[in-house]
Specification:
Order of helices and strands: EHEHEHEHEEHEHHEEH
Number of helices: 8
Low-confidence stretches: none
Largest sheet: 7 strands, mixed
Length: about 250
């Protein structure tokens, strides 16, 4: 069993240098069979060059870190994740991604990946920011409430069973990705919801895995423009889903 872990990044020179080395060290300590690929989603030239230097320096110590994959221009987080997954779908058993901001600690990311490798029957895992006994979720109040409003919309329009579709850590079997890949079109912030909708429509199992989470400053989501765009994306996914066949 082997996992490809994609890290999409867009102008992350401020956060990635702190997060990536710590993540690679934790993966090495854990002994998990993980390959890591950072995907630059059309960052500014100086940012992209800095990320490339960082990765080149780290590859000497961590051979499971692939060279930087750079998209020609900014296409969106979903497009960046799929670029890595498409290249690895035939060589890895699982495909995963984690956000570059460090909201999920390296230890928590490895705990999630270890769970994926232990499963006895293949299923997709969505990390979920559920405040419950035994878990520690620290979110700014504004982001918590806007997130719950969006989650309510997802539950109403797409799937009433999911609690948190937007947490930035997910993994799915490569075989399941191959089955749903033709239906995946969303490039930006609702690509997680489209992934969920495609998996559920195909009757493929999805579980939510509670994780610890801490908000990190520097969110790329505009509170008004992107929220409106995400809402429109939900209606677009619902409309497209009506034309899908099992």
């Amino acid at each position: 069993m082997h996992i490809l872990l994609a890290i999409p990044c867009y102008n992350e020179a401020g956060r990635l240098p702190a997060y990536l080395p710590a993540l690679l060290e934790q993966i090495e300590i854990s002994g998990l069979p993980v390959t890591v690929e950072v995907v630059d989603d059309g960052s500014q030239e100086s940012e992209r060059a800095g990320t490339e230097r960082l990765i080149t320096d780290l590859q000497a110590s961590y051979p499971f870190l692939l060279p930087l994959r750079a998209l020609p221009h900014n296409l969106g987080k979903g497009a960046a994740v799929r670029a890595a997954w498409d290249a690895a779908v035939e060589t890895h058993n699982f495909l995963a991604f984690v956000d570059a901001d460090g909201s999920l600690s390296p230890a928590e990311t490895c705990r999630f990946l270890a769970h994926c490798l232990r499963q006895t029957s293949p299923h997709t895992c969505f990390a979920s920011r559920i405040q419950m006994l035994g878990r520690n979720v620290k979110r700014h109040l504004y982001r918590h409430y806007t997130g719950r409003i969006f989650a309510t919309m997802v539950g109403t329009l797409i799937d009433s069973h999911v609690y948190d579709s937007q947490c930035g850590l997910k993994a799915l079997p490569s075989a399941h990705y191959r089955m749903i890949r033709p239906r995946l079109r969303e490039n930006r912030f609702v690509f997680d919801v489209e992934l969920l909708a495609a998996l559920r429509h195909a009757g493929l199992p999805v579980i939510e895995f509670p994780v610890d989470w801490t908000d990190v400053p520097g969110s790329k989501i505009h509170p008004i423009l992107d929220t409106f765009g995400m809402a429109c994306g939900l209606f677009r996914i619902r409309s497209q889903r009506r034309g899908w066949v099992v």
